[in-house]
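quick one, 296 residues, struct below
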Amino acid sequence: TSARKAVSVMGTTDVFFIVTQTPVEDKSQNLVINPHVVPGLWLVGGPMGMFGGTLEWYTNHVLEKSKSLEELNKEAEQVTPGSEGVNVFPSLSGERTPFWNPHMSGIIWGIKPFHKSKHIYRAMLEANGYAVKEIMELGTASGVACDYVIALGGGSKSDIWLKIKADIIGKSMKRTSIEEATMAGACKLAMLATGIPVETFPDIPIEKEFIPDANVNQISHFADITLNQNVVNLTDDTIIVDNKFKPTLVPQLEKLGILAEKIKMCIIDNVFYPIYKINFSKINSQRYYETELLAA
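---
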């Protein structure tokens, strides 16, 4: 009920909103902006796709209930940030904020022979963190920011999930001790309707706070991607390695240093493609590939 707070309701989906005192113009048109039930406040953010629901699908249908969520949470703590290269986009039923694409489907990529179920599970948790980070960055671009995030819902019971989110977004995640948040909210609405001033409402009791680790926050992780469904902004020294490139050509360009660094991913027609930074000095010394790169 005050500005610069945010809430993450972690259930089958994740609903994330930042509280602000003024309505804003979202130039990206990817965020939901609603009036708060408290006069004079606004909500910026929106509902996301399946996160808790994807975890349930993974444990019930893929692992066939061979491991509980508690076991998977403990195993995920053993995996280093970045899930050792495994990446998950857990959109089993399309995506809402901030991507708004009903046709997107779930994707797991980067799997190697040494990866186990714990790596995939942690990558799912990290995906939620990066989706929230994307919303926060869009909010910042519109002049909306938060100091911390209050976590609610069944997913908030997972310590490792909240720690991962805190590290990725760079803000504290605070778990409330209120289990029935909907009921508590209904009570506050009733108080508001009877004329009780918002300023006199009791503070939300915080059970535990998860502080972001600045070192982890600085890790360059392949899942830290900007997925824009319509526009991909490229600089002069970047290129999308899409199906114009022969599969055998890409590793050669990497080995020669022409494709210097894989910096993020983009989606074109619901297909993931990597974006690389180009080393032009290497192109000059390897003229053979100049035609292919210019054509691409």
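The CA atoms of residues 120 and 202 lie 40 Å apart.
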